[in-house]
Design goal:
The longest helix is centred in the N-terminal third of the chain and has 16 residues. A seven-stranded parallel beta sheet has the order 4-3-2-1-5-6-7, sandwiched between helices. It is globular and about 45 Å long. β5, α5 and β6 form a beta-alpha-beta unit. The chain is of the alpha/beta class. α1 runs parallel beside α2.
Length: 197
């Protein structure tokens, strides 16, 4: 494992715990010689994380769409800044060059990005682990919604179980090391459901 994509807010949120966790993650990555891959902005948790990683001697790759660079939110002091045309190209490049994905607290963009990685994992387009760092219980309602997807028959339990959730950074990486990607035989599942009717 060499590169870790992190999705997080372009705002800092209302609790100092979010900023502290972004700093801890950036420090962990730098101290363990892991490259941070992120959205390339200098604002919010994104910028805080990049600045700390760089200050600790870490490598940081930012990937930013041109329309956001044009709004002057791009971080200009990164190890490497890659400029792409679209949001989709950003996500695809992050997926291609990263070995795992982490979501810190954030808004619609953060949620959309980590769920796209989870969807691609479900479709076996990649077999890389995805994690939520559940700072201050931030993702509790979202995780309950995922449990309801399973209950209502819209998400296989194996795919719910592949989602790593932890309150602290070290636990995320312990679970990354133990991660086994689920391979589900859809034909057997469908047959089992038919037989249970």
């Amino acid at each position: 494992m060499k590169r870790i994509s992190v999705f997080c807010g372009s705002s800092s949120g209302n609790s100092i715990k979010y900023k502290n966790t972004a700093q801890k993650l950036a420090t962990y990555l730098a101290e363990n010689n892991l490259t941070l891959v992120y959205g390339g902005a200098y604002v919010g948790l994104m910028g805080e994380m990049a600045n700390v990683a760089l200050a600790k001697g870490g490598k940081v790759i930012g990937i930013i769409p041109k329309h956001l660079q044009d709004r002057e939110v791009a971080h200009t002091n990164l190890t490497e800044l890659r400029v792409v045309e679209t949001m989709h190209q950003r996500k695809k490049m992050m997926e291609e060059i990263s070995d795992a994905f982490i979501a810190l607290p954030g808004g619609l963009g953060t949620t959309e990005e980590i769920f796209e990685m989870l969807t691609w994992a479900q479709l076996n387009l990649h077999k890389k682990p995805c994690a939520f760092v559940n700072v201050n219980g931030y993702f509790n309602f979202l995780l309950s919604f995922l449990d309801n997807m399973v209950k209502e028959g819209f998400l296989e339990k194996e795919y719910r179980d592949m989602i790593i959730v932890a309150d602290d950074i070290e636990s995320v990486f312990d679970q990354f090391k133990a991660y086994v990607h689920p391979i589900i035989d859809k034909a057997k599942i469908a047959l089992g459901k038919l037989n249970n009717k």
